[in-house]
Amino acid sequence: xxxxxxxxxNRGLGLEFVRQLLAxxxxxxxxxxxxxxxxxxxxxxxxxxxxFATLALDVADADAVAALPGKLRAGGRVxxxxxxxxxxxxxxxxxxxxxxxxxxxxxxVNSIAPMLVAQAVAxxxxxxxxxxxxxxxxxxxxxxxxxxxxTFGLSYGMSKAALNMGVKKLASEMKRRGVAIIALHPGWVQxxxxxxxxxxxxEESIRGMLKVIDGLTTRDNGRFLTYAGEELPW
Length: 234
Description:
Helices cover 40% and strands 15% of the residues. It is of the alpha/beta class and 234 residues long.
């Protein structure tokens, strides 16, 4: 049994990660801003006993992220795999209407927070007899090679490209520590963010991503992969 720390676990992809991990017997620490109000999440964990815990965490709050290791230790929570899943989008951003505040907010959550979470939690991952992993949920829209117009807004694509760079930059440091780290694209998924016209159901996306995550080693560090394990261009 592995123990997973998941950010943004109260809905969408995060919630489906929790569902499938608990169903297969893994342990989960589910993080979101207001876990007491996350009814679907609490119902999932109700029968999981000590394998499941929630933790209040606003990833946009750097102080809260820095305090995360202390809270995990205090709760006796082990971490083997970190899934940096929390993310936001800005919606329509037409040229001539770009707003600095919007860009800063999206970058803080999508790009900066995963790096701070990785930095905070890495010491908890470094323990004998484990194969620790950090997975950053990115997007194909963060591929500079494939970028086209303002699809899904400017800020979102910028933030995911920055996240991809962060994963690439951390690859050698994490390998030195024995920790695998990759950027993982879930596909276009039918969530509140992806919309109902998306081509994948959450169940299919998460099944694919878990298969990729299960097979990761430090030889994969810095890769940009899809939920099907295919390489994406930077």
